Amino acid sequence: MFSEKELNEKFNSEYSKLEKEIDKPNILIIGGTGVGKSSLINKIFGEEISKVSNVKPETRGINTYNHNDVVLLDTEGFELGDDKNKFFEEKIINEVENRKKGPEKNQIHLIWHLISASSERITDYDVNLLNKLQSFGLPIAVVFTKSDIANEEAMDNMVKRLFPKLTFNDAFKNKEKSPFFVSSTEDEDESLSPINLINWSIEKLPEGLKYAFTASQILNYEAKFNQAKSIINQHTLGNSSVGFSPIPFSDAPILIASQIGMITRIIKLYNLSELNIDSFMASTGAGLVVSNLAKSVVGSVFKFIPGIGTVVGGIINALVAGTITFSMGTALNILLRKITIEYLKGDIEKVASSLSNFSELFKNQFGEEFKKKYSK
Fold first, then answer.
1. What SS3 string covers the chain?
2. Which of 184, 239, 272, 358: disulfide with 321, CB 3.0–4.6 Å?
């Protein structure tokens, strides 16, 4: 039997281990002065990166931001027609080339090339740099910023300047395939949201780096939700396997302790600290979730499997164990998505209410999920 203190310690240990061992993607971000790199980065990752991240300007022309679960290599902004552009171009190419020769963890995994649509022009520097970067075979996204104050004809000409055989419709209408994206100066226009860039990035990243990127971005809560479902299925399969050893019902907390890994991965995935909800990890993440899992599980299983607690030698078999695991993960996933949506909508009162009542909300949600799953 695990005590509340032991469960919390196990959670904290697993969380610290995950933070240390997580594989982070390296994203190279290129763009001229005033193109809106900081604005786009802040929208996607939720805060002013340059003020809060561990900055390492070890390469002149490139600042490296170690921001939690991603590493952003932000190139210095260049001026149109500036003589220094050749210097920056060489630095950028050398950086990509040198990293490509090194270990996988240091290589560039994605490139975001930002161009201001409002400028209505593509420079020779943009074209030459893009052509050289393409030779490395890396996934490159071209992001036209400030698209809300540009017209379609101008953007069509800009696309053709970069890729003569493409039109505006080719570039932007086929969102599943095209590496072209748009963003706006304001947050109101959902059609110009960076969501498509986020989805493209997740798709293009190696499998082992998708989790970290999905966790680090704050806008696409559905990507987090779907990633969490995959995690839940992995753990459910493990506890529903033929090799699962039945355990006495009185030892249900042992099952909970075995699923701390799943709980940790889901909580880390939603990264609520990025939403400035720092109290979640201190009070809810470790305290309420973990400490009340055993109580919620026992209460719900008693309710939906009458007699299991009264039968001498009552056991949790593979079916029940898998159902418990699935219901735990799904309940947590649903509630964390709810809190994320509330925050993104700016409904701080609802966020506060959800956090303060998290224990009861989790208990009720777990009961609903267990009932649905077990009755199938």
1. CCCHHHHHHHHHHHHHHHHHHCCCCEEEEEECCCCCHHHHHHHHHCCCHHHHCEEEEEECCEEEEEECCEEEEEECCCCCCCCCHHHHHHHHHHHHHHHHHCCHHHCCCEEEEEEEHHHCCCCHHHHHHHHHHHCCCCCEEEEEECHHHCCHHHHHHHHHHHCCCCCHHHHHCCCCCCCEEECCCCCCCHHHCCHHHHHHHHHHCCHHHHHHHHHHCCCCHHHHHHHHHHHHHHHHHHHHCCCCCCEEHHHHHHHHHHCHHHHHHHHHHHCHHHHCCCHHHHHHHHHHHHHHHHHHHHHHHHHHCCCCCCCCCCEECHHHHHHHHHHHHHHHHHHHHHHHHHHHCCCHHHHHHHHHCHHHHHHHHHHHHHHHHHCC
2. 239
Domains of the chain: 4-18+219-374 (no CATH), 26-204 (3.40.50.300)
The residues facing 29 across adjacent strands are: 74, 112
Query: Mind listing the pLDDT tens digit for each residue in 163-214?
Result: 766 666 666 655 555 576 766 555 545 556 788 899 999 999 999 999 999 9
Characterize 75-88 residue by residue with b for buried, 16 or more Cβ atoms within 10 angstroms of its Cβ, and e for exposed. bbbbeeeeeebeeb
